[in-house]
Amino acid sequence: TGMKILENLWQVGGAEYTTVEDAAVYLVRFGEKAVLIDAGCGNAQEAMFENIAEVLPPEVEIEYLLLTHCHYDHTGGAEAVRNRYGCRIVAHELDAAYLESGDSTVTAANWYGARMTPLKIDHKIKEKGETFQVGRVKLTAYHCPGHSPGSLVYFTHIDSNRVLFGQDVHGPLEASFLSNRENYIRSLKFMMGLNADVLCEGHFGIYRGKEKVSQFIQSYL
Protein backbone atom coordinates (compact mmCIF):
# COMPACT_ATOMS: atom_id res chain seq x y z
CA THR A 1 0.00 0.00 0.00
CA GLY A 2 0.98 3.64 -0.39
CA MET A 3 1.41 6.28 2.30
CA LYS A 4 -0.81 9.26 2.99
CA ILE A 5 1.25 12.44 3.37
CA LEU A 6 -1.50 15.05 3.52
CA GLU A 7 -5.18 15.09 2.66
CA ASN A 8 -5.24 14.23 -1.10
CA LEU A 9 -1.48 13.56 -1.31
CA TRP A 10 0.05 10.07 -1.25
CA GLN A 11 3.29 8.32 -2.06
CA VAL A 12 2.37 5.35 -4.25
CA GLY A 13 5.80 4.25 -5.51
CA GLY A 14 9.39 4.08 -4.31
CA ALA A 15 11.65 1.67 -2.45
CA GLU A 16 9.22 0.65 0.33
CA TYR A 17 6.11 0.79 -1.84
CA THR A 18 7.03 -0.81 -5.16
CA THR A 19 10.63 -1.87 -5.85
CA VAL A 20 14.01 -0.78 -4.52
CA GLU A 21 15.19 0.83 -7.78
CA ASP A 22 12.13 3.10 -8.08
CA ALA A 23 12.45 6.75 -7.18
CA ALA A 24 9.46 8.13 -5.30
CA VAL A 25 6.12 8.39 -7.13
CA TYR A 26 3.60 10.87 -5.74
CA LEU A 27 -0.15 11.08 -6.42
CA VAL A 28 -2.02 14.34 -5.86
CA ARG A 29 -5.80 14.64 -6.10
CA PHE A 30 -7.45 17.96 -6.95
CA GLY A 31 -11.19 17.23 -6.77
CA GLU A 32 -12.20 15.23 -9.86
CA LYS A 33 -8.69 15.35 -11.37
CA ALA A 34 -5.35 14.01 -10.23
CA VAL A 35 -1.70 14.06 -11.26
CA LEU A 36 1.14 11.59 -10.83
CA ILE A 37 4.66 12.88 -10.29
CA ASP A 38 7.18 10.48 -11.83
CA ALA A 39 6.63 6.85 -12.74
CA GLY A 40 9.41 4.68 -11.32
CA CYS A 41 11.48 2.38 -13.52
CA GLY A 42 8.57 0.16 -14.57
CA ASN A 43 9.59 -3.08 -12.85
CA ALA A 44 6.70 -3.13 -10.37
CA GLN A 45 3.81 -1.59 -12.30
CA GLU A 46 1.05 -3.74 -10.83
CA ALA A 47 2.05 -2.89 -7.27
CA MET A 48 1.93 0.81 -8.14
CA PHE A 49 -1.42 0.52 -9.91
CA GLU A 50 -2.83 -1.28 -6.83
CA ASN A 51 -1.51 1.46 -4.53
CA ILE A 52 -3.22 4.07 -6.72
CA ALA A 53 -6.50 2.13 -6.85
CA GLU A 54 -6.58 1.91 -3.05
CA VAL A 55 -6.71 5.68 -2.62
CA LEU A 56 -8.12 7.09 -5.87
CA PRO A 57 -11.76 6.45 -6.80
CA PRO A 58 -12.06 5.17 -10.39
CA GLU A 59 -14.04 8.25 -11.52
CA VAL A 60 -11.14 10.59 -10.69
CA GLU A 61 -9.11 11.15 -13.86
CA ILE A 62 -5.32 11.18 -13.75
CA GLU A 63 -4.82 14.06 -16.14
CA TYR A 64 -1.02 14.38 -16.21
CA LEU A 65 2.08 12.35 -15.52
CA LEU A 66 4.56 15.07 -14.55
CA LEU A 67 8.16 13.98 -14.99
CA THR A 68 10.76 15.75 -12.85
CA HIS A 69 13.64 14.73 -15.14
CA CYS A 70 14.72 12.10 -17.65
CA HIS A 71 16.40 9.51 -15.42
CA TYR A 72 15.26 5.93 -15.73
CA ASP A 73 14.27 5.44 -12.07
CA HIS A 74 11.72 8.22 -12.64
CA THR A 75 10.69 7.54 -16.26
CA GLY A 76 11.09 3.86 -17.16
CA GLY A 77 7.48 3.19 -16.17
CA ALA A 78 6.01 6.24 -17.94
CA GLU A 79 4.66 4.50 -21.06
CA ALA A 80 2.79 1.90 -19.00
CA VAL A 81 1.27 4.66 -16.85
CA ARG A 82 0.05 6.52 -19.94
CA ASN A 83 -1.37 3.31 -21.41
CA ARG A 84 -3.20 2.55 -18.18
CA TYR A 85 -4.66 5.98 -17.38
CA GLY A 86 -4.67 7.86 -20.68
CA CYS A 87 -2.80 10.76 -19.05
CA ARG A 88 -0.53 13.21 -20.85
CA ILE A 89 3.19 12.99 -20.14
CA VAL A 90 4.88 16.31 -19.32
CA ALA A 91 8.65 16.97 -19.26
CA HIS A 92 11.02 19.86 -19.87
CA GLU A 93 12.09 20.10 -23.52
CA LEU A 94 15.80 19.78 -22.61
CA ASP A 95 15.28 16.35 -21.03
CA ALA A 96 12.51 15.34 -23.46
CA ALA A 97 15.16 15.14 -26.20
CA TYR A 98 16.91 12.23 -24.42
CA LEU A 99 13.65 10.47 -23.60
CA GLU A 100 12.34 10.71 -27.16
CA SER A 101 15.61 9.49 -28.67
CA GLY A 102 15.90 6.64 -26.16
CA ASP A 103 19.33 7.70 -24.90
CA SER A 104 20.34 5.09 -22.33
CA THR A 105 23.42 7.02 -21.14
CA VAL A 106 21.96 10.45 -20.36
CA THR A 107 18.81 8.84 -18.91
CA ALA A 108 21.01 6.53 -16.79
CA ALA A 109 19.07 3.46 -17.96
CA ASN A 110 22.41 1.70 -18.34
CA TRP A 111 23.00 2.17 -14.58
CA TYR A 112 20.02 -0.13 -14.10
CA GLY A 113 21.12 -2.66 -16.70
CA ALA A 114 18.25 -1.47 -18.89
CA ARG A 115 17.61 0.28 -22.18
CA MET A 116 15.55 3.46 -22.49
CA THR A 117 12.79 2.76 -24.98
CA PRO A 118 12.06 6.00 -26.87
CA LEU A 119 9.27 7.78 -24.98
CA LYS A 120 7.01 10.31 -26.67
CA ILE A 121 6.46 13.41 -24.52
CA ASP A 122 2.96 14.87 -24.98
CA HIS A 123 3.72 18.30 -23.55
CA LYS A 124 7.13 19.95 -23.36
CA ILE A 125 7.81 22.72 -20.88
CA LYS A 126 9.97 25.46 -22.31
CA GLU A 127 12.45 27.75 -20.63
CA LYS A 128 11.67 28.83 -17.09
CA GLY A 129 8.50 26.88 -16.44
CA GLU A 130 4.75 26.79 -16.71
CA THR A 131 1.59 26.79 -14.60
CA PHE A 132 -1.08 24.11 -15.06
CA GLN A 133 -4.69 24.31 -14.01
CA VAL A 134 -5.73 20.92 -12.59
CA GLY A 135 -9.34 20.95 -11.52
CA ARG A 136 -9.66 24.14 -9.47
CA VAL A 137 -6.00 24.22 -8.42
CA LYS A 138 -2.87 25.67 -9.96
CA LEU A 139 0.33 23.68 -10.05
CA THR A 140 3.57 25.26 -11.29
CA ALA A 141 6.59 23.62 -12.92
CA TYR A 142 9.88 25.45 -12.47
CA HIS A 143 13.00 24.67 -14.49
CA CYS A 144 15.74 23.78 -11.98
CA PRO A 145 18.66 22.45 -14.03
CA GLY A 146 21.82 21.00 -12.55
CA HIS A 147 21.32 17.30 -11.87
CA SER A 148 20.08 17.06 -15.47
CA PRO A 149 19.70 19.80 -18.13
CA GLY A 150 15.90 19.75 -17.94
CA SER A 151 15.27 18.99 -14.26
CA LEU A 152 11.98 20.42 -12.98
CA VAL A 153 10.40 20.94 -9.59
CA TYR A 154 6.64 21.16 -9.14
CA PHE A 155 4.99 23.46 -6.63
CA THR A 156 1.40 23.69 -5.43
CA HIS A 157 -0.80 24.49 -2.43
CA ILE A 158 -2.56 21.65 -0.63
CA ASP A 159 -4.87 23.11 2.01
CA SER A 160 -2.64 25.69 3.68
CA ASN A 161 0.61 23.89 2.84
CA ARG A 162 3.12 25.04 0.26
CA VAL A 163 4.18 21.71 -1.22
CA LEU A 164 7.35 21.26 -3.29
CA PHE A 165 8.07 18.15 -5.35
CA GLY A 166 11.82 18.43 -5.72
CA GLN A 167 12.92 15.05 -6.84
CA ASP A 168 16.66 14.83 -7.02
CA VAL A 169 17.51 17.76 -4.78
CA HIS A 170 20.50 15.71 -3.58
CA GLY A 171 22.01 15.31 -7.09
CA PRO A 172 24.29 13.51 -7.84
CA LEU A 173 26.30 15.55 -10.33
CA GLU A 174 27.64 13.21 -12.98
CA ALA A 175 29.31 13.93 -16.33
CA SER A 176 27.30 11.26 -18.19
CA PHE A 177 24.07 12.96 -16.99
CA LEU A 178 25.27 16.30 -18.40
CA SER A 179 25.09 17.70 -14.88
CA ASN A 180 26.15 21.30 -14.27
CA ARG A 181 27.42 22.44 -10.86
CA GLU A 182 26.75 26.18 -11.30
CA ASN A 183 23.19 25.54 -12.43
CA TYR A 184 22.69 23.08 -9.59
CA ILE A 185 23.76 25.62 -6.95
CA ARG A 186 21.50 28.26 -8.52
CA SER A 187 18.59 25.79 -8.52
CA LEU A 188 19.10 24.89 -4.86
CA LYS A 189 18.98 28.59 -3.93
CA PHE A 190 15.83 29.03 -6.00
CA MET A 191 14.18 26.06 -4.23
CA MET A 192 15.02 27.54 -0.83
CA GLY A 193 13.29 30.74 -1.93
CA LEU A 194 10.03 28.86 -2.55
CA ASN A 195 9.68 28.61 1.23
CA ALA A 196 7.91 25.23 1.13
CA ASP A 197 6.16 23.71 4.16
CA VAL A 198 6.49 20.19 2.76
CA LEU A 199 9.19 18.80 0.47
CA CYS A 200 8.53 15.50 -1.32
CA GLU A 201 11.96 14.34 -2.45
CA GLY A 202 12.88 11.57 -4.89
CA HIS A 203 14.98 9.30 -2.69
CA PHE A 204 15.07 10.70 0.85
CA GLY A 205 11.38 10.90 1.65
CA ILE A 206 9.22 13.68 3.03
CA TYR A 207 10.40 16.77 4.91
CA ARG A 208 7.81 18.69 6.92
CA GLY A 209 8.07 22.23 8.25
CA LYS A 210 9.87 25.15 6.64
CA GLU A 211 12.93 24.67 8.86
CA LYS A 212 13.44 20.98 8.00
CA VAL A 213 12.88 21.63 4.29
CA SER A 214 15.35 24.50 4.34
CA GLN A 215 17.95 22.46 6.27
CA PHE A 216 17.74 19.59 3.79
CA ILE A 217 18.20 21.81 0.73
CA GLN A 218 20.90 23.88 2.48
CA SER A 219 22.89 20.71 3.27
CA TYR A 220 23.60 20.29 -0.48
CA LEU A 221 24.92 23.83 -0.82
List the helices and strands and how they pair.
Blueprint: E1 3-6, E2 9-13, E3 25-30, E4 33-37, H1 45-55, E5 61-66, H2 72-75, H3 78-85, E6 88-92, H4 93-100, E7 123-125, E8 129-134, E9 137-143, E10 152-158, E11 161-166, H5 181-193, E12 198-201, E13 206-208, H6 210-218
Parallel strand pairs: 4-5, 5-6, 6-7, 11-12
Antiparallel strand pairs: 1-2, 2-3, 3-4, 8-9, 9-10, 10-11, 12-13
Helix pairs in contact: 5-6
What does this structure look like?
With 221 residues, the chain is α/β, with parallel strands linked by helices. It has six helices and 13 strands. The strands form two sheets. The protein has a seven-stranded mixed sheet with strand order 1-2-3-4-5-6-7. A six-stranded mixed sheet has the order 8-9-10-11-12-13. A hairpin with an 8-residue loop joins strand 9 and strand 10. The radius of gyration is 16 Å and the shape is globular. The model has no long low-confidence stretch (mean pLDDT 96).
